[in-house]
Specification:
Largest sheet: 2 strands, antiparallel
Distance between the termini: 56 Å
Strand content: under 5%
Number of helices: 24
Oligomer: single chain
Radius of gyration: 30 Å
Number of strands: 2
Helix content: 55-70%
Strand order of the largest sheet: 1-2
């Protein structure tokens, strides 16, 4: 048999051409052409179902960020400079205008001239700007070589202030501008990494909403006055911490790409910088590492409880996610330690000085919340009572000479050398808790967590006054701190600006996410929820280790609000799904 590969019949070719020409008319008549067109369009519609919800979510995030910045301007934060920022300005001026080479110190003459024009405790933007302009104009004049050290606290604020002046000009508003520029960059990196997940974008929107709601408390609280206060600077890297947690969580159900690791590395760099600004940001390091371990262990344990056959080791993606987050975080922290060891002047590493801030002093302060320990140690929420307790401890064990050697005999303990003092507080804590085991455990496991919950209830509007006001009424300073707490509460009430979770402007941003969550598979939302819960639990570390008070709960208030919003939206979306399933007609 011969196979024919073509035809030379002219009539056959003409018939074929006529058949092809008449096909579109038949498709229009039968609707077949429309079916083919829909099939070709289907990939485009699938893509639209992904990017349209993401676009709406990003628009909501942009609106939330704009509202947050507008609230900051309304609060006048660009004109309100806390003492830590004011103290950082002379070192910056010394370096940038007088050529001072020893970083994190100030020329004595520059500091004298600056504070001759600026009242440190009630500094205004006008007075600070005028003093800075005057010192900048006379920068060519000699200011001598004598210099002074910064106080016993974290020194990184000098870098934030210095960078803001270089980037945005020599004025106090530049500092807040840089703050929000960093937060914007961190939020943008987060969106690029997780734009496909409605639940992940909801967490970011909830962070911005909660930060906006918490801002009035920062303004009315004399212990804070601004987001630039060192006590609340860890807020700056909370989005970065959430990014790292989400990176680990999403590794449970999808592969990790090179771009994801690069974005994570940038966020880890921000966390490291924020630790440089405020060492208590270490709670974020502990949270990321703890969550990494949990992501490796918990799924294995749950699977075995349910008697599901799973590999003995976690999947490659999960190992990569947890390992990358943990490894980069360790590298960032070690890198910061190396930098501080080389950049900080040697004077901060001598026996009488301290490079960052005290730790054990704050841990021991938390025992004031235990009614028995407060009476036994005679301590309150003030530094002097803790120093007095340390003095009494040394006298009790026959080491009063140590107290004299560290400068504790000066009036008000103003001469105490904190590098020597804090290890003694640690020894005192260990000695006391070795004897009073039950009371110490009760402090950490009951009294301080309960105080945190009550402080959050106060800030959210479920409680009239802050809790534990008795520990703020000290025989050394009277009721100054107590009146500050009450004044903060009164200011919030008079302005109607408690952090009400049901604030209409907040709900306008949050509620639309319910519709977006309907389009997201539920298995994707659970890792997001776990990351949010991890962030909230991690944010309790500073208060459980230290103490809970209106000026120490901002991070926890933001994080728990985020979880409440996400959990509420997931619950509503689940209810809507259930209603839609019940309304679906049953096949006959």
């Amino acid at each position: 048999m011969t196979l024919m590969t073509g035809s030379s019949d002219p009539s056959a070719s003409a018939a074929a051409r006529q058949e092809a020409a008449s096909q579109p008319q038949r498709d229009r008549a039968t609707g077949q052409g429309r079916v083919d067109w829909l099939q070709r369009l289907r990939p485009t519609r699938a893509n639209a179902s992904t990017w349209l919800p993401a676009l709406l979510a990003v628009l909501l995030i942009v609106a939330a960020f704009a509202t947050m910045v507008a609230r900051a301007v309304e609060m006048g934060f660009h004109n309100r400079q806390p003492v830590w920022v004011v103290d950082a300005i002379p070192p910056v001026l010394s370096e940038q205008y007088y050529g001072h080479q020893k970083r994190y110190t100030a020329l004595a003459e520059v500091q004298r001239r600056f504070f001759a024009r600026v009242n440190r405790e009630v500094a205004t933007a006008e007075s600070i700007n005028a003093a800075m302009r005057r010192l900048a104009e006379t920068g060519t004049n000699s200011a001598g070589e004598s210099y002074v050290l910064l106080g016993p606290d974290d020194k990184g604020i000098v870098d934030l202030v210095g960078a803001s002046f270089r980037l945005f000009g020599l004025r106090t508003s530049s500092i807040l501008t840089l703050y929000f520029a960093i937060l914007l960059a961190s939020s943008a990196l987060y969106v690029v990494a997780f734009w496909r997940s409605a639940s992940a974008l909801l967490l970011l929107a909830a962070f911005l909403v909660m930060f906006t709601l918490v801002m009035p408390m920062l303004m009315y609280n004399p212990q804070l006055r601004s987001p630039l206060a060192l006590r609340v600077l860890p807020i700056l890297s909370m989005v970065a911490c959430l990014h790292a947690l989400m990176f680990v969580a999403t590794s449970l159900h999808r592969r990790i790409g090179v771009l994801s690791i690069i974005l994570l590395a940038l966020q880890i760099a921000l966390i490291s910088f924020t630790i440089h600004l405020r060492s208590t940001t270490l709670w974020q390091v502990a949270t990321i590492m703890g969550f990494g371990v949990a992501a490796l262990v918990v799924p294995q344990v749950v699977a075995r409880i349910r008697r599901v056959n799973v590999p003995l080791l976690p999947g490659r993606s999960t190992l990569l996610g947890a390992g990358a987050a943990t490894g980069l975080m360790i590298a960032g922290y070690v890198g910061l330690q190396v930098y501080q060891a080389t950049a900080l002047p040697e004077e901060y590493r001598r026996g009488d000085e301290i490079a960052t801030r005290v730790f054990w002093h704050n841990v021991f302060t938390g025992f004031a919340y235990h009614p028995e320990l407060q009476g036994r140690f005679k301590i309150w929420l003030d530094d002097v009572s803790i120093m007095a307790a340390t003095r009494d401890y040394l006298s009790e064990i026959g080491r009063a000479d140590v107290w004299r050697d560290m400068g504790g005999t000066e009036t008000g303990f103003e001469g105490v050398k904190f590098a020597k003092y804090d290890p003694i507080v640690r020894d005192m804590l260990v000695a006391r808790c070795t004897v009073l085991v039950r009371e110490c455990l009760e402090t950490f496991l009951w009294y301080k967590p309960v105080s945190l919950v009550q402080n959050l209830a106060w800030l959210y509007g479920f409680r009239e006054l802050p809790p534990d006001l008795d520990v703020a009424d000290s025989p050394y300073f009277g009721d100054i701190l107590k009146r500050q707490f009450l004044g903060t509460s009164d200011g919030l009430d008079r302005s109607g600006r408690r952090a009400y979770l049901w604030t209409p402007a907040a709900l306008l941003v949050i509620v639309p996410f319910v519709a977006l969550l309907l389009l997201e598979p539920r298995p994707v939302a659970w890792p997001t929820l776990s990351a949010g819960v991890a962030l909230a639990l991690g944010a309790t570390i500073p208060t459980v280790v230290g103490y809970a008070a209106p000026h120490t709960v901002a991070e926890a208030a933001i994080a728990f609000g985020m979880v409440i919003y996400l959990g509420g939206c997931l619950a509503v979306a689940g209810g809507v799904r259930a209603i839609l399933r019940m309304a679906r007609p049953t096949p006959v």
